[in-house]
Amino acid sequence: MRVAVIGAGVAGLSAALLLAARGAEVTVLERALAPGGKMREVTAGGLAMDAGPTVFTLRPILEEILAEAGASLDAELALRPARVLARHAFDGSPGRMDLFADVAESEAEIGRFAGAAEARGFRAFCARARAIWQALEHPFVRGQRPNPVSLLARAGLPGLPGVLRISPFATLWSALSEHFRDPRLRALFGRYATYCGSSPFAAPATLMLIAHVEQQGVWYVEGGMHAVARALARLAAARGAVFRYGAEVAEVLVEGGRAAGVRLASGERIVADAVVSNADTAAFAAGLFGPAARRAAPPVPEAERSLSALTWCLAARCEGWPLVRHNVFFSADYPAEFEDLFARRRLPRAPTVYVCAQDRGDDARAPAGAERLLVLVNAPATGGLPESEIETCERTTFALLRRAGLSLLPEASVRTTPREFAALFPATGGALYGRATHGWQASFLRPGARSAIPGLYLAGGGAHPGAGVPMAAMSGRLAAEAVIADRSRFRSMSRFRRTATPGGMPMPSPTTGGTASR
């Protein structure tokens, strides 16, 4: 079976690896010059650094994908567990607070920072987050595009009480208010909504499950997060997948009502029995893959887009505030930040700032010389912002860091704006997480692996189960499973009908141990 994969983000790479391991003839078409997609790498001052996702969680998902392809995660990537999940500062509030992988250690730190009552609230919050994850992991995260009815059906009677306790109709902020009186802690845990590009004031309480996910392990990846993309591409190529970089897909070919391959911007046509798209799902409705493919996935209205970002990749010397790997500097007025982002569709006048110090770990030890920093603030996905607004945000961003006691002495900088993200990822307006997860129905609005066009499959942060590295990898896995299942069904039907012309190309036997479907 011939499969064309559009895009070498983590979802496309996962699908390509699993399909190649099962013997499919896989061609990966990536318009950039390297794999990774949003898991990209840039160079500032001669230092290569991550410019996209910086947090590696849910290790078992990638372990399973590699195992199914006959590989081992430990053999391909060097991972080190983080003790400190993140260090936090609050504008106008003295001191700082660390969050740890160990729940008891975090509880003690919260007690020191905010008092015994808040520490007890944290313990109850963790229990609730764990229950939500346990209720949703198998029927939702690992399932082919569920709806509310199928979610209940997949959970079954034993899992029904857990599903009914996940608080789908409450917002994350209101649920956090049940556990924490301190607004600083509500802001800290409300930030989990931004992991999928959403507002804690509109996202469902189910996103509390991210707290439990992080407590199961956050890992430092030697070589940075881009090393994950390189490893997946290397493994897929070793199993026969062909990678073509600088190859932009202009059209998904549709013949007889089903996907039949792709046409490149150069005019070259590539015939395929199945097409897996790792592009943003909004690209189809926007017509970027041709008129015949428009109906593959529904459009995402601008008002429903997730967040974009304004980022600075710095080679800089740091003084003062003791950075660890992950650091968050909160604005004094968290609600006002999201009012700016989603209601006014502008950069926050007082942004919260994330700083990833990529050469540090848990102990705040600075490297000699300039170090690699990713500085990020959330931005609206409007496709572009006035330069004056960007410059104002830049001043307020670095002023907040100085007020916290962090002095940065940049030697080189690479800035990326929402306009540039929109150019990197067409049809998104710069949105980095697909559709915003606002309201209880939002998670069910993401398209599943099977598009509206037979033979065309969807993967990536805009598809089910959602944004983030592990979820995108899972979407690639679900797409590969759907391709294999549909191909097997098609072959069975062809054999049953006994037609004179075979109904499809038989799929070669697996070349490795493991299976891409369960």
Word description of this protein:
The chain has helices at 10-21, 59-68, 73-76, 103-114, 116-141, 148-164, 172-177, 183-190, 209-215, 226-238, 282-285, 334-343, 387-404, 418-424, 442-445, 469-497; strands spanning 2-6, 25-30, 41-44, 47-50, 79-81, 84-90, 93-100, 219-221, 242-245, 249-255, 258-264, 269-271, 274-277, 308-320, 326-330, 353-357, 371-379, 406-416, 456-458. Among the domains are: 2-40 and 60-78 and 225-302 and 440-497, FAD/NAD(P)-binding domain (3-Layer(bba) Sandwich); 106-193, no CATH class. The two termini are 20 Å apart. It has 16 helices and 19 strands.
The structural class is alpha/beta
CATH C-level of the domain at 2-40 and 60-78 and 225-302 and 440-497? Alpha Beta
Overall pLDDT score = 91
> What's the CATH superfamily of the domain at 2-40 and 60-78 and 225-302 and 440-497, by name?
FAD/NAD(P)-binding domain
Distance between the termini: 20 Å
Report the oligomer.
single chain
Within the CATH hierarchy, at the fold level, what is the topology of the domain at 2-40 and 60-78 and 225-302 and 440-497?
FAD/NAD(P)-binding domain
Biggest sheet: strand arrangement? 7-6-15-16-17-14-18
Number of helices: 16
Number of strands: 19
Strand content: 15-25%
The major β-sheet equals: 7 strands, mixed
| Radius of gyration from CA coordinates | 23 Å
Shape: globular
From the coordinates shown, what is the CATH architecture of the domain at 2-40 and 60-78 and 225-302 and 440-497? Answer: 3-Layer(bba) Sandwich
- Low-confidence blocks of residues: 496-518
Q: What is the helix content? A: 25-40%
